[in-house]
Design brief:
mainly beta; Double-stranded beta-helix; twelve-stranded antiparallel beta sheet; three-stranded antiparallel beta sheet; globular; TIGR00266 family protein; AIM24
Amino acid sequence: MEHEISHRPSYAQLTLSLDAGETVRAEAGAMVSQSGDIEIQTRAEGGLLKSLSRSMLGGESFFMNTFTAHGPSSVQLAPALAGDIQHHDLDGETLFVQSTSFIAAHPDIAVDTKFGGGKSFFGGEGLFLLKLSGSGPAFLSSYGAIDEHTVEPGTPLTVDTGHIVAFEDTVAFSVRKVGGLKSTLFSGEGLVCEFTGDGTVWTQTRSPDAFLAWLIPKLPSTSSSQ
């Protein structure tokens, strides 16, 4: 499987070139186009319970699409939000991915749900993670551009939960309030995640939660009489 990421970092699109017999699983609704002799199957991956947890807790679709090439083929994928796409090659390790950042992966990679921390009553932010484990290529998307941070022992990294894309399982994390009650209520930050240990964390330059908090008050309201 060969890949090309174009139009980055603002409106990235992923093009996968598949030979006969190669397969890729993708988030439902991510396909832009496809060409060649390719079969698409839609199913609840991992069974009913795993699909429900991935949908209800992880923010992903209940179903996934599986693309199987019966000859030289290509499929173009893109995330729902404007941003970048990043490629990761897993070799038996585990990667934790923020919900909505998963776009596609090799079928040998298991996608499960891990609860990372409760939502803030006022900020609405939480940390619901997808657990990617196995071997093969995986592709993650972001809202905005992607930054890479190296966490070293003794030097913790604090990130707003809405800006997390992914992190390695060699990094420990804890979710907490940004400060005291006043900071939690009025700072606009909600919850943050503190990473410790030795590994890599990827963040996005924009937050979907912050965008919704800005957008929703500006939407026109419908009166009850209408």
